[in-house]
Automatic annotation (TrEMBL):
<dbReference type="Pfam" id="PF14128">
    <property type="entry name" value="DUF4295"/>
</dbReference>
<protein>
    <recommendedName>
        <fullName>DUF4295 domain-containing protein</fullName>
    </recommendedName>
</protein>
<dbReference type="InterPro" id="IPR025379">
    <property type="entry name" value="DUF4295"/>
</dbReference>
Length: 50
């Protein structure tokens, strides 16, 4: 199960997005959040990989 949250961040030179993905731990079963700041083109590949 993945929760998709994307916020758009704008800096002086680049346009960036912050993606947050909810990942279930295989050992404990607890959910954790993984955050990354990247270009908008890379968001889909980040959310698809496990």
């Amino acid at each position: 199960m993945a929760k998709k949250t994307v916020a758009t961040l704008q800096t002086a030179s680049k346009r960036l997005s912050k993606a947050i993905k909810m990942v279930k731990s295989p050992t404990t079963g607890a959910y954790t959040f993984v955050e990354a700041i990247m270009t908008p083109e890379e968001v889909d590949t980040f959310l698809k990989k496990k």
